[in-house]
C-alpha cells in the first residue's frame, strides 16, 4: 500500500491537469475551450495508464454570451446574462421579492414586471430553493424578466443556467445575474420604478462530448468514476469543476498502479455540458445498462476544504464503505445521507443506482466562490488534491471489491426520499421530476 500512497503524494499529474484546464480559458459547454478540455482530459487519462481513452461526442444546443445590462432611471448597472437566457430587451416595473420564496411569488403580482430575487434561502425555510425554481416561478407568474442577485458580498455577479420552463434548452424570459451590492441598490432605490433588462446572446448548434477511459478487469459490471470538464465562461472554473476532473486523473493514475486489486472494471468519465442541464451524463445514462453499474463516485467542486464530504443518497452500504476507508487511514471523511438531484451522478442515481456526490466540507453557505469570476486556481492547494485523491483511490477500490455488495434501489424509493426531503416540489416546478408516478 505504501508505494502508491508515496507516489500519489509526489505526483503532479492531477495538479498539472488542473493548470491545463484553467489555462484553456472559456470551457463553456459547446464552445471550443470545452472540447479542448475534453481532449486534454482524454490524453491525461491515457497518460495516467487508463486504456481506450476517447472523446464520445454529441450534439448540443449552444449558448454564447454577449453584453447585458440593467438600466435604471439614473444608472446602468453591471450584470451578466444567465446561460440559456434568451436574448431580449425588456422595459418594465421592477419588483423586489427578496429571497424569492414560493409564498413571495404567491403574494405578489409579477405579471409583466422585472422580478428581482436573491440567491439565498432563509434559515427558517424548510428546504433549499434552486435558482431555476425561482426563475420558473417568475415565468409561471408572467414576469417580463428575471434579475438574480448574489447574496454574498464582493461585487460578484453569479451565473448559472436557467433553461426553459418546460425543461427545454432555452429559457422563456431574459435573465441576468447581478452582485449583492447591485441587488441591494436596485431594491433600495428602484423597487417600483421602470428598468430595462438587456441580454445579448447567440444560440448556435454546437457539439460537446464525454472523455472516457477504462481501468481494471474487463467485467460486465463496472464502477463509474466521474467529473465534469465544462465550466462557466466568466471564470477559470478551478473548483467547479477543474478540481474534480484533476482529481479523477490523479485517482486514475493511482488505480493504474493497483489494477491487480480491482475486482470490477472502473469506467472513468469526464462529462461535457454539466452546467447547462447534465447533458453529458444524461447521454451516458440513456445508453447505459443501469443494472451493470455497481456504484458511482462523482467528483464535483471538491478541494474547497481538506475534508471530503460524500453525499450518499441514503445508500447505507456507501456510507459504510466510506467509514471503512476513513478508519483504515485514520482520516476524516464526512458523509451526508440525503439526495442531491444535481451534478452528474443524478441521471443514474434517480433510477436507483448507488452513487456518491463527492465534494468537500465548507463553513460558508451556498457555492462560495463557485459560479462567479472568483472561482480561480489561487484558492486551491495541491496538498488537498493529493490527500483527497489517496482517499478516493481507496474508496474506488473498496466499492469495486467483489465481496462488497451494494444493492440498487427501486425508482419509487428514490422518489419517496425526494418527497421526504421536500425536494420533489421544486423538481416538479422546474420540469426536473423524472418519474411518471406520483
TrEMBL record:
GO terms for molecular function: carboxypeptidase activity; metal ion binding; metallopeptidase activity. It comes from the Archaea. GO terms for cellular component: extracellular region; lysosome. CDD domains: PA_2. This is Carboxypeptidase Q. Homodimer. The monomeric form is inactive while the homodimer is active. Gene3D superfamilies: 3.50.30.30, Zn peptidases. Keywords: Carboxypeptidase, Endoplasmic reticulum, Glycoprotein, Golgi apparatus, Hydrolase, Lysosome, Metal-binding, Metalloprotease, Protease, Secreted, Signal, Zinc, Zymogen. One of its GO terms (biological process) is proteolysis. PANTHER family: CARBOXYPEPTIDASE Q (PTHR12053:SF3), PROTEASE FAMILY M28 PLASMA GLUTAMATE CARBOXYPEPTIDASE-RELATED (PTHR12053). InterPro entries: CPQ (IPR039866), PA_dom_sf (IPR046450), PA_domain (IPR003137), Peptidase_M28 (IPR007484). Residues 210-389 form the Peptidase M28 domain. Coiled coil: none annotated. It holds the Pfam family Peptidase_M28. It comes from Halolamina litorea. It is found in: Endoplasmic reticulum; Golgi apparatus; Lysosome; Secreted. Residues 92-186 form the PA domain.
Amino acid at each position: 500500500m505504501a508505494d502508491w500512497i508515496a507516489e500519489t503524494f509526489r505526483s503532479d499529474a492531477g495538479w498539472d491537469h488542473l493548470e491545463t484546464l484553467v489555462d484553456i480559458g472559456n470551457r463553456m459547454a459547446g464552445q471550443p475551450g470545452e472540447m479542448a478540455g475534453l481532449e486534454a482530459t482524454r490524453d491525461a487519462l491515457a497518460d495516467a495508464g487508463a486504456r481506450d481513452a476517447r472523446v464520445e461526442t454529441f450534439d448540443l444546443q449552444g449558448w454564447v454570451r454577449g453584453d447585458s445590462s440593467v438600466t435604471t432611471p439614473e444608472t446602468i448597472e453591471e450584470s451578466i446574462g444567465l446561460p440559456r437566457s434568451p436574448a431580449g430587451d425588456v422595459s418594465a416595473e421592477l419588483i423586489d421579492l427578496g429571497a424569492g420564496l414560493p409564498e413571495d411569488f404567491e403574494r405578489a403580482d409579477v405579471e409583466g414586471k422585472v422580478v428581482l430575487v436573491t440567491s439565498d434561502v432563509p434559515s427558517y425555510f424548510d428546504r433549499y430553493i434552486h435558482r431555476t425554481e425561482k426563475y420558473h416561478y417568475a415565468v409561471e407568474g408572467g414576469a417580463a424578466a428575471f434579475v438574480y442577485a448574489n447574496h454574498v458580498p464582493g461585487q460578484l455577479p453569479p451565473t448559472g443556467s436557467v433553461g426553459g420552463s418546460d425543461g427545454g434548452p432555452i429559457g422563456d424570459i431574459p435573465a441576468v445575474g447581478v452582485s449583492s451590492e447591485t441587488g441591494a441598490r436596485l431594491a433600495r432605490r428602484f423597487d417600483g420604478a421602470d428598468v430595462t433588462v438587456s441580454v445579448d446572446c447567440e444560440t448556435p448548434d454546437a457539439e460537446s462530448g464525454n472523455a472516457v477511459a477504462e481501468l481494471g478487469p474487463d467485467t460486465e459490471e463496472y464502477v463509474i468514476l466521474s467529473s465534469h470538464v465544462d465550466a462557466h465562461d466568466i471564470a477559470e472554473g478551478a473548483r467547479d469543476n477543474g478540481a474534480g476532473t484533476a482529481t479523477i486523473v490523479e485517482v486514475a493514475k493511482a488505480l493504474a498502479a493497483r489494477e491487480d486489486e480491482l475486482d470490477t472494471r472502473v469506467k472513468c468519465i469526464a462529462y461535457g455540458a454539466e452546467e447547462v442541464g447534465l447533458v453529458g451524463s444524461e447521454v451516458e445514462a440513456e445508453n447505459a445498462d443501469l443494472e451493470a453499474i455497481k456504484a458511482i463516485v462523482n467528483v464535483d467542486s471538491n478541494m474547497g476544504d481538506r475534508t471530503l464530504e460524500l453525499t450518499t443518497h441514503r445508500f447505507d452500504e456507501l456510507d459504510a464503505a466510506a467509514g471503512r476507508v476513513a478508519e483504515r487511514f485514520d482520516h476524516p471523511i464526512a458523509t451526508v445521507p440525503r439526495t442531491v438531484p444535481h451534478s452528474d451522478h443524478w441521471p443514474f442515481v434517480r433510477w436507483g443506482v448507488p452513487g456518491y456526490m463527492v465534494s468537500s466540507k465548507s463553513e460558508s453557505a451556498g457555492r462560495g466562490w463557485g459560479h462567479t469570476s472568483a472561482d480561480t486556481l489561487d484558492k486551491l492547494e495541491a496538498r488537498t488534491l493529493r490527500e483527497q485523491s489517496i482517499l478516493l483511490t481507496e474508496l474506488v477500490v473498496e466499492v469495486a471489491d467483489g465481496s462488497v455488495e451494494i444493492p440498487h434501489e427501486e425508482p419509487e424509493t428514490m422518489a419517496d426520499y425526494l418527497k421526504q426531503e421536500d425536494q420533489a416540489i421544486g423538481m416538479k416546478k422546474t420540469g426536473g421530476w423524472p418519474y411518471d408516478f406520483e
